Amino acid sequence: KSSVQTIGEEQIQNPYTELLVLKGHQDIVRFLVQIDDCRFASAGDDGIIFLWNAQTGEKLYELHGHTHKITAIAPFSSSDVTEEKTDLIITASADRTVIVWDCASGRQVQKVSCFHSTVKCLTVLQRLNVWLSGGSDLCVWNRKLDLLCKTSHLTDAGISALVELPKNCVAAAVGKELIIFRLSASNNGSEVWSILEVKRLVDHQDNISSLVSVNDLTFVTGSHIGELIVWDALDWTKQASECNFWDSSVQPDVQPEIKLSQSPHETSVQHLTSDEECVFAAVGKGIYVYNLQMKRVIACQRTAHDSSVLHIEKLPNRQLISCSEDGSVRIWELREKQQLPAEPVPTGFFNMWGFGRANKQANQAAKKIHENTPAYFLELVGDLIGHSSAVQMFLYFGELGLATCSADHLIILWKDGERESSLRSLTLFKKLAQNGDLQLKL
């Protein structure tokens, strides 16, 4: 029997009671990126990029240009002093090309095909008005797609993730290593750039699978064997680490499963996200809330889903959303536990027989457990059933709802049923009022 929490049909706190199914993709949809308040792009293994309206579900553009699957996608809003703001997206593919697209027209702006390997990640440094591509080397480009500089060949496996750091630095995950690079532009105004390797961090025991920037002072990495490391973003020193996500003492009220060993799949950190206070980690089938000030896990669901959790995000209102290989999307609420008062040490009659000492030891043990026990818990408040295969990721659009993409080739827009109903009533009321005006004029 699965130990995963279930929720009944009466999901009072789940607003997503309506859905729109968006069809078009012919293979796994792996990526969703937000363009603005009401537009987003989707991409995946069919090599096609679609632009959508998040309110109506209308397909705006279908972008063809890649011959293999999409491996990375990033939005890039450029605003030159001489030009008005243009919304662009950059896509990389297994066909070893990178294309820049104009979101307003759906046309191809520029294409580069000089790569020696597949580009696995793209990062836009908005402040410097450049973007980076990570593959077997790290390249720096301007928005016209001129190559400004590049590193030497790093590894055949390539860069798996990139994160921007202060002082014109970036951290690149290359296998088990974290390489810090510094970018510098020439002072004479010419487009001469250089990229310099300044440090290699080798604290991880396994390949780094996830990277997230918390703020200008902190960034966090996670590995395939469940290590989470908190780093200082200015001097790149290790601030804290957590390796016991699967340890039963993290959640003492749950009976630990008896296992001889943990497979890497069960402890892999698939995704990290953060607010200023906590890091939210998708680890194996579970989700964990790690408090950066306390330097410990304060809440967790060790079996949040039946299969690996692929993506996790925190909503503005103390809620989390997670999606999984099992095809489900779940909403969680971070709630504070009601703390029970500590029991006093018994005295008198029991003390004569030495029970007091035993109880004192028991109390100290209980106090220790109490200190390690998370002060919060994650309550399941919504379960969105719609996809028939692994849900790769999602985008949260506030009152416009939630977009999810899946291996079933579909994108689903989940809508607030009450809001949609009131919008329909309002539209109908306006229509009736207009008709009434027409009749009066006649």
UniProtKB/TrEMBL annotation:
It comes from Erythrocercus mccallii. Component of the C9orf72-SMCR8 complex, at least composed of C9orf72, SMCR8 and WDR41. The complex is formed of two protomers, each individually consisting of one molecule each of C9orf72, SMCR8 and WDR41. The protomers homodimerize via an interaction between C9orf72 (via C-terminus) and SMCR8 (via N-terminus). Within each protomer SMCR8 (via DENN domain) acts as a bridging protein between WDR41 (via C-terminus and N-terminus) and C9orf72 (via C-terminus). The C9orf72-SMCR8 complex associates with the ULK1/ATG1 kinase complex. Keywords: Autophagy, Cytoplasm, Repeat, WD repeat. GO terms for cellular component: lysosomal membrane. One of its GO terms (biological process) is autophagy. This is WD repeat-containing protein 41. Pfam families: Beta-prop_WDR41. It comes from the Eukaryota. WD repeats lie at residues 22-62, 63-111, 302-342. It is found in: Cytoplasm. Non-catalytic component of the C9orf72-SMCR8 complex, a complex that has guanine nucleotide exchange factor (GEF) activity and regulates autophagy. The C9orf72-SMCR8 complex promotes the exchange of GDP to GTP, converting inactive GDP-bound RAB8A and RAB39B into their active GTP-bound form, thereby promoting autophagosome maturation. As part of the C9orf72-SMCR8 complex, stimulates RAB8A and RAB11A GTPase activity in vitro, however WDR42 is shown not be an essential complex component for this function.
